[in-house]
Write a structure and sequence with these properties.
CATH superfamily: Tyrosine recombinase, N-terminal domain
Helix content: 55-70%
CATH topology: DNA polymerase, domain 1
CATH architecture: Orthogonal Bundle
Radius of gyration: 23 Å
Structural class: mainly alpha
Largest sheet: none
Order of helices and strands: HHHHH
Number of helices: 5
């Protein structure tokens, strides 16, 4: 029986061949599975930039996931396309990685600190 292994089995085998960690394997397979469900159980070989962008937008906007989570999903899809399906990705240039938001810490000015200290009642 020369049946071709299922896509997730192919991905798992490729991840193990390339010595990816077990946790990376679990996460990549989860993202690949979610993507396949998102595109209506079509084979990923039939997809393109529009589907990948729609999936990443869905994660960021509808699911409100962080930038690092979105980038992890993108890495899993790139692994699937490049290492498992061995597809050329000319449309990859248009995919933009999510950027982490920068948080500016809230600090008090010297005058505000002085005001707080002056208004303290007890020793501490």
């Amino acid at each position: 029986m020369d049946a071709k292994p299922r896509l997730l089995d192919q991905a798992r085998e490729r991840l193990r061949t390339l010595h990816y960690s077990y946790r990376t394997e679990q996460q990549y397979l989860q993202w690949i599975r979610r993507f396949i469900l998102f595109i209506g159980k079509r084979h990923p070989r039939e997809m393109g930039a529009a589907e990948v962008e729609a999936f990443l937008t869905h994660l960021a906007v509808d699911r409100s996931v962080s930038a690092s989570t979105t980038n992890q999903a993108l890495a899993a899809l790139l692994f699937l396309c490049q290492k498992v399906l061995e597809l050329g990705l000319p449309w990859l240039q248009g995919i933009v990685r999510a950027k982490r938001s920068s948080y500016v810490p809230v600090v008090l000015t010297q005058a505000e600190v002085r005001s707080v200290l002056v208004n303290l009642r007890d020793e501490y």
